[in-house]
């Protein structure tokens, strides 16, 4: 390799900044040691925190398409490399690493772009696929062809699901179908890895290739018998040899290995190389099998869905294990009480081996010792445990530096020893569980407890059943049993055991008193705790789940025992396409347990908001009573509406409502109820409610939030029936003005912000409000407010909004009037406006807006105005300095935005200028770095946001996405700069 040529390209694209490798860049032999392949040997690789890998290969002459196709096929089989760069002295070719191979020489089909190896083209290459573009997400917006939907995991799981479906459809028992598929994959792995040679296969079975063997049932029996004797363990038990499936079934599996289309009979290209596909991917086969549905019951939920089984993607596994295994020795023991197909156990085994090997090649004895003594799993499903055993055997073989000769690779059984089939609640009470999980002094204690226990919703009966078996004083989780599994796992822990468990987010972030009690009990038991909110990612991370997710970490990092750390992981446009996520320092908030005990909803605020949101909530809750209490003084309350129900459930008398207008789900507009509603004519309904709740004036609230992130609320000045798509409060006739004032408040951005921060579901799960959410809204005294000047102004504005359509400017006027009513200052108005923007992220359009590039003349200028206003207030105390802001006018396509704030002598008004920089983004960073004596490119390897202080200036550099440049971000950045100035002695 020409190291100079490759390094020139790496320098120009940010992978080798400031004359040294960026974080997570590996060169030469180091890069080659990080992968195993047949033909492809990288010269460099860069790996993101989520394991996405960019490979670099240098060739003196342009390689042939057939060779590049071989390289790319290996990269595709690895499953984590979206890009392959082929660098030569004249050009750089970028290939899509996620594109499914279709033939032997298909490199050109997957070529994304070619760049000349000259300065001008390298600038374009950097803008498209440089490190900053990859890290900030700009690359994924430009390279739409690079998508995980075509990667090896999606293709293999789809093919295996089709294979299993065909076998079951042909009347092979599902368990037998899954077993033969697993054994065939294991065998093909041995062949691909050359642990079993084609010569040996020919001698043993009469055929040199596995598909030919499978088409010969006698040869298949010989092969399975030999594998059972050679490898022992749980993959090929003697019973499996005796019950080898019939030839017709084996032929269908052979067709899969030869890429024969089962319908047309045509042979295509077989893309898979099982010696390269990560073992963790093989584990995910269980998710496909677990959710497989026989055609006769396609409309009914599978047992897996009923039991809350969800495939855990490797990115989530890595998130958990990166934290709980940081700084360990490799001697630790691991337990997963709901291990499923064993993906946590497989990755834990790999990491324990690497820790113990300490940079040396691990010995087979070391690998097997860790496998049999340190890694334990339990699951109620025998099929899952068998897949877990299979996956762990594969992992042990993959870690083995020299897996030869085959007869020396015998496995001891794992099932019944360290992998146990049984109910986690009682697994140690008899048989294998007692032997494996108990000691003379009691339950075996583990150093790490990990997993993704069921999130299943058991309902009222399930909660009652669990309470019967729960110790007195221990609260039960009302909407599922994930926390129950954590408490059960804690029985196998000691005081330093680390926990990393994926759970439903609902008990932690909802307003359910019982849910909060159960969550806080666990948090106190395992303190100190960190919660990572994954709810923004559930549409791809846990696509089959019906609840949002959170990761509970405990005792994994040094911190005060009374402190809880909450981490938000935001939605990104590239997340589903890459199976990765990002965390910014701004997305981390720490709370004391005492704060949470006093106001449990602060957990939700920290999971979706900022410190400024917490401060504003404290102020509002201290100054105003909740709406529910306010309504009580008017002898009113919110009530749910009528439930029609199915015909067989319409048993209650509803004749008292006949003749009234009825408000159906789509009828309402903000502040406006149509005059031509249908009349209610039914004699019966499932839940008609009482006639009194339908009396005017009615403040009617739609439970589903509008797509403008505002509450749809209106006042009905005539009696009418509202359905259960709404809830409403019937106020006394003398308080009609209070009803309209309340509607104005609930329709404002302040209410949207409040409900995002505190409601049970909106912001983490559904776009839905509950009565308890609205009842908790802090509201000024309604009787006094309608008489105030601000109240009268707000009522006038609300009157003008009673139309089917409202202009954007009218919303702004409404918001300002509500701010005036609450006497909210300008700084907190910024917090609320940012909250409305964040509330819009619950819809796809809002999410896309949040990651769109920030515009220099609108978004960044607004940010700078807020920032200098805060600093200006601080400077005004002495009135000896003022601030000037310089916004660098960077192209929209650039991955970063840069603002420079300069302190200047003398009193004066702050100014904001948009300046045209000299050169490209990298030139600007280099210039700033030279002036401030900071290697910016290197610093940006580890941090998404940078503040660089000079003598009288601070430069703020962030990704281009709009969500980094909100008003609330400017407030907090200014707060931080002021705090740092005091610490640095510059005040």
Automatic annotation (TrEMBL):
**Cited CDD domains:** AdoMet_MTases
What chemistry does it catalyse, as a reaction equation? Answer: a 2'-deoxyadenosine in DNA + S-adenosyl-L-methionine = an N(6)-methyl-2'-deoxyadenosine in DNA + S-adenosyl-L-homocysteine + H(+)
The record's keywords, sorted A to Z, are:
Methyltransferase, Restriction system, Transferase
Top enzyme class: transferase
Stored Pfam families:
N6_Mtase (PF02384)
Assigned EC number:
2.1.1.72
Q: Which GO terms describe its molecular function?
A: DNA binding; N-methyltransferase activity; site-specific DNA-methyltransferase (adenine-specific) activity
Give the GO terms filed under biological process for this record: DNA restriction-modification system; methylation
- In its keyword annotation, does this UniProt entry include Transferase? yes
Keyword Methyltransferase among record annotations: yes
Domain (DNA methylase adenine-specific): residue spans on this chain? 301-576
In which family does this protein belong, per the annotation?
Answer: Belongs to the N(4)/N(6)-methyltransferase family.
The name on file for this protein is: site-specific DNA-methyltransferase (adenine-specific)
- Native organism: Accumulibacter regalis
């Amino acid at each position: 390799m020409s190291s100079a040529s490759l390094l020139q390209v790496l320098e120009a694209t940010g992978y080798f900044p400031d004359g040294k490798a960026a974080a997570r860049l590996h060169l030469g032999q180091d890069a080659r040691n990080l992968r195993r392949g047949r033909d492809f040997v990288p010269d460099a690789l860069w790996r993101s925190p989520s394991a996405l890998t960019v490979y670099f290969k240098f060739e003196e002459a342009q390689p042939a398409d057939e060779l590049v196709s071989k390289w790319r096929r290996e990269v595709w089989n690895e499953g984590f490399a979206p890009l392959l760069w082929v660098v030569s002295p004249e050009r750089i070719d970028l290939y899509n690493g996620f594109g499914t191979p279709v033939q032997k020489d298909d490199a050109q089909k997957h070529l994304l772009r070619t760049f000349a190896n000259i300065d001008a083209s390298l600038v374009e290459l950097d803008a498209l696929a440089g490190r900053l573009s990859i890290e900030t997400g700009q690359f994924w917006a430009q390279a739409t062809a690079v998508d995980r939907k075509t990667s090896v995991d999606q293709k293999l799981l789809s093919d295996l699901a089709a294979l299993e479906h065909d076998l079951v459809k042909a009347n092979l028992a599902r368990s037998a179908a899954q077993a033969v598929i697993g054994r065939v994959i294991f065998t093909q792995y041995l062949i691909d890895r050359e642990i079993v040679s084609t010569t040996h296969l020919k001698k043993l079975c009469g055929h040199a290739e596995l598909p030919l063997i499978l088409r010969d049932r006698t040869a298949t029996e010989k092969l399975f018998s030999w594998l059972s004797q050679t490898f022992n363990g749980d993959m090929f038990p003697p019973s499996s040899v005796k019950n080898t499936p019939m030839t017709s079934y084996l032929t269908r599996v052979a067709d899969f290995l030869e890429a024969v289309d089962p319908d047309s009979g045509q042979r295509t290209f077989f893309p898979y190389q099982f010696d390269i596909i990560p073992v963790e991917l093989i584990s995910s086969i269980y998710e496909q099998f677990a959710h497989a549905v026989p055609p006769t019951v396609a409309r009914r939920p599978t047992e897996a869905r009923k039991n809350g089984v969800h495939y855990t993607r490797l990115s989530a596994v890595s998130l958990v294990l990166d934290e709980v295994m940081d700084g360990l020795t490799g001697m630790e023991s691991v337990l997963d009480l709901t291990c499923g197909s064993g993906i946590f156990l497989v990755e834990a085994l790999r990491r324990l081996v690497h820790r113990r090997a300490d940079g040396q090649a691990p010995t087979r004895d070391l690998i097997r010792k860790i496998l049999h003594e340190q890694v334990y799993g339990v699951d109620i499903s025998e099929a899952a445990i068998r897949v877990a055993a299979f996956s762990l055997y594969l992992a042990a073989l993959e870690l083995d530096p020299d897996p030869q000769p085959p007869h020396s690779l015998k496995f001891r059984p794992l099932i019944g020893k360290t992998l146990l089939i049984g109910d986690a609640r009682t697994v140690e009470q008899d048989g294998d569980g007692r032997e494996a999980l108990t000691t003379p002094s009691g339950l075996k204690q583990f150093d790490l407890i990990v997993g993704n226990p069921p999130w299943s919703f058991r309902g009222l009966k399930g909660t009652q059943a669990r309470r019967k078996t729960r110790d007195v004083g221990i609260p039960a989780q009302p909407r599922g049993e994930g926390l129950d599994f954590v408490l059960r796992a804690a029985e196998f822990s000691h005081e330093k055991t680390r926990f990393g468990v994926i759970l439903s987010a609902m008990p932690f972030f909802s307003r359910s008193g019982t849910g909060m009690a159960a969550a806080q009990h666990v948090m106190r038991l395992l303190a100190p705790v960190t919660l990572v909110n994954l709810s923004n990612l559930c549409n791809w991370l846990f696509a089959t789940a019906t609840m949002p997710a959170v990761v509970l970490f405990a005792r994994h990092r040094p911190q005060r025992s009374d402190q809880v750390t909450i981490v938000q992981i935001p939605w990104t446009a590239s997340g589903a396409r890459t199976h990765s996520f990002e965390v910014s320092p701004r997305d981390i908030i720490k709370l004391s347990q005492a704060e949470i005990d006093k106001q449990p909803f602060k957990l939700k605020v920290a999971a979706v908001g900022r410190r400024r949101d917490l401060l504003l909530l404290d102020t509002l809750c201290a100054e105003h009573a909740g709406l529910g209490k306010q309504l009580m003084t008017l002898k009113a309350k919110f009530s749910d509406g009528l439930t029609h129900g199915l015909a067989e459930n319409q048993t209650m008398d509803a004749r008292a409502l006949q003749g009234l207008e009825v408000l159906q789900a789509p009828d309402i507009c903000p502040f406006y109820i149509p005059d031509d509603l249908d009349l209610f004519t039914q004699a019966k309904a499932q839940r008609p409610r009482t006639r009194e709740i339908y009396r005017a004036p009615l403040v009617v609230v739609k439970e589903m939030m509008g797509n403008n992130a505002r509450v749809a609320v209106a006042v009905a000045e005539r009696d009418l029936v509202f359905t259960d798509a709404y809830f409403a409060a019937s106020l006394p006739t003398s308080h009609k003005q209070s009803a309209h004032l309340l509607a104005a408040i609930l329709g404002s951005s302040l209410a949207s912000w409040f409900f995002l921060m505190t409601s049970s579901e909106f912001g983490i799960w559904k776009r839905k409000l509950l009565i308890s959410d609205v009842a908790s809204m802090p509201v000024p005294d309604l009787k006094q407010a309608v008489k105030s000047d601000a109240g009268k102004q707000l009522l006038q504005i609300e009157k003008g909004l009673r139309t089917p359509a409202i202009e954007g400017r009218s919303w702004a006027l409404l918001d300002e009037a509500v701010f005036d009513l609450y006497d909210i200052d300008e700084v907190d108005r910024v917090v609320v406006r940012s909250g409305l923007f964040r509330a819009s992220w619950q819809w796809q359009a809002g999410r896309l807006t949040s990651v769109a590039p920030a515009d220099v003349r609108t978004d960044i200028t607004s940010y700078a105005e807020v920032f200098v206003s805060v600093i200006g207030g601080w400077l005004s105390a002495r009135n000896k300095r003022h601030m000037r802001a310089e916004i660098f006018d960077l192209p929209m396509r650039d991955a970063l935005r840069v603002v420079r704030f300069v302190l200047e002598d003398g009193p004066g008004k702050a100014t904001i200028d948009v300046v045209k920089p000299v050169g490209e983004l990298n030139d600007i960073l280099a210039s700033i770095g030279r002036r401030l004596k900071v290697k910016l490119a290197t610093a940006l390897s580890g941090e998404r946001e940078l503040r660089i202080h000079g003598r009288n200036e601070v430069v703020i550099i962030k990704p281009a996405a709009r969500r980094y440049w909100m008003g609330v971000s400017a407030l907090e950045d200014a707060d931080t700069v002021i705090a740092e100035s005091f610490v640095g002695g510059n005040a």
